[in-house]
Every structure is written in structure tokens, then in C-alpha cells.
Amino acid sequence: MAHQETNDLTREDFDAGPSSYNEIEPNLYLGNLTAATDVEWLKQAQITYILTVDSCPLPRKIQCLPDVTLKYIQVTDMPREDLLTYFEDTYQFILYALERGGKVLVHCYFGVSRSATLIIAYMMKKYNMSFSKAFEAVKQKRRFVGPNPGFIAQLKLYEHMDFSINNNNIQFKLYRLQVAADNVRKAKILPQNHMDLIRSDPGLATVRPEPTVYRCKKCRRIVANASNILPHAPKEQQIWRHVSTKRHDKPPKQIKCLQMPESATQEEQKTAEICMKTYFIEPLAWMPEITHNVEGKLNCPKCNSKLGAFSWISGCQCPCGSKIAPAFYLVPSKVDWSNVVQNVQSTI
Length: 348
Fold this sequence. Notes:
Layout: E1 21-25, E2 28-31, H1 33-36, H2 39-45, E3 49-54, H3 60-63, E4 69-74, H4 87-99, E5 104-107, H5 114-127, H6 131-141, H7 149-160, H8 170-187, E6 213-216, E7 222-225, H9 253-256, H10 266-272, E8 279-280, E9 295-299, E10 306-311, E11 316-317, E12 323-324, E13 327-330, E14 335-338
Parallel strand pairs: 2-5, 3-4, 3-5
Antiparallel strand pairs: 1-2, 6-7, 6-14, 8-13, 9-10, 10-13, 11-12
Helix pairs in contact: 4-5, 5-6, 5-7
């Protein structure tokens, strides 16, 4: 492997192999870096749009090409990398290009995992197609495509959400928390682009309050709504997992269980297939420590009683045997379940 005199490696030190590309659909190509930097081929194929998903942008000679529109997404080919949140943006980029008679090249380094994932997501949304069918359709055109396991899980979650980003989907919430936790692990604080994960304070007055809430047992202050609860099953070990529910099935049973109080009978809890020994919740605005600390306690914002704790990295081991990470949790003995609506803001 060649080195510069400074012993620093550059992109030129690595070889993506010979130019490789395949036309997946009319005017839509999937290829490798070598194809994306082959000026003669780009001109011959009349490529007018290039979508790059790689650790480095394309070299200047490509960026300076006239009549070629570039889009760059910086992502490495690692299972825990986030591509899901780019699916809608890249779909619109490809669709815009094709509707205007353009020719699009989507590429990563080898044209196997990252770029294939974006093409598969595009096919799924365009044709209302399952992941497995879209994968096979792309594979028929480019036989060695192979998204890594993390990207496959993201594509399946995308299918579960009906080819859109649903911020209220519990699995998507868990997924985004994991992505944020990976960034907190590196930066030791919550990056600004993840601040939207922190939901509004449920204790503040609102026009449409939720009927089911959790209150501090000592001062009765509302500390969580039912929709803030992230349900888990006993002995569940996954940080986040894909729910294998068919896209048009009824919501999973656990969604109905969020209103169950701690006093629910064992039979009721068993039927619900949900653990109530620890209340895992979303990050909330009344938790000031969570943005600049990796872990800590969660105290009631009114009376300062300890209600639980949080950990972005280590997570929490529930008594049921489930390991949840990252974790923001309330201890059931410290809060009460309530369906008495009080925090109503009147409107005139």
C-alpha cells in the first residue's frame, strides 16, 4: 500500500477495483467509486446527477464537471451507521432527476452496501414493494449487492413504517435513540442535531392533554405521558429491534398496554406481553442533565424526589432480565399511574 512522505493515507492509497456499474432501472445506475470518477464514462453515459454515499466526497475533477449535479452523504459502511433518516431525501433526489430526464449514478466505494441500500429504499417506496422483493429486484441487475445487517434492519423498519419516517413509531424512536447514543459516546454530550429527541414537558399546560399520565408519587407533578413510554418485553436484549408485523396489520399488542398501571394483575401483564417492572421513557424537557452528561439521576422537577435515572451508554438492566440501552427510566414505586386530566390550557 502506497504512503505519502508524511505517512498519512489518502483516498488514492486504496483501490476500489475496476469501473463497475449496472443500470437498475432506465437511467438509474448503481456503481462504485471508480465509475463515479471515470470522466469519460460519465460523459459517454450522459450522467447528469451523482449521489455519493461514502466516507469522502468525490474529487475536485468531478465536482467541477459542468451540467452534473452532485449530492453527498457522509456515511461509513458500518452496521450502526444511520442511513434510514436519509431515505426520504435521497428518494426525492433520484425522483427529481429522473422526472427531468436526467441520468443518475448512485454509488459508494464498492457499490455493494451503502449505495445499494439507498437504491433498495427507493424501489420500495416507488413501487410499494417489500424489502425482500426490492432486494431481489436490485440483485437481479447487480448480482453482488449486499447491504450490511444494520442497513437491512433499517430497510425492514422503513417497510414497517409504510415507506415513510414516522416519528411516533416506537421502533423508530428506539432506533433514533441508539443513533444519538453512539454520538454521545464519541462527544460526551448530546449533539445539536439530536436535540429534537427531547420531547416537551408533559407537566406543562396543553390544549389537548393525554388522558393517561404518570405522576410523581410525592408531589403529584406529571412527569410522563403514556405516549412517552417505550415498552419492552421480558428478557429482551436488543437495543432496538425490527417488529415483524405486516405493514397493514393492527398495531402490536404492547401499544395498548401503555395505560396499564403497576397494579395490573399478573395475568393482565402476561397477556399484554409487556414488562411493567421498569418504566422506560423518552428523553423529556424536564431532564436538564441529559444533554451534557452521559449518565445521572432523574429527579422530580417540582419536589426534587428521585424518580429514576438515565444512561446513554451503559443503559439499564430491568429486573425482568431485559437490557435497554440507552435508557431513561422511572422506578414504578416512585410514580403513580393516573387518568385524571388536569393540565388543560383553556382557549378562547
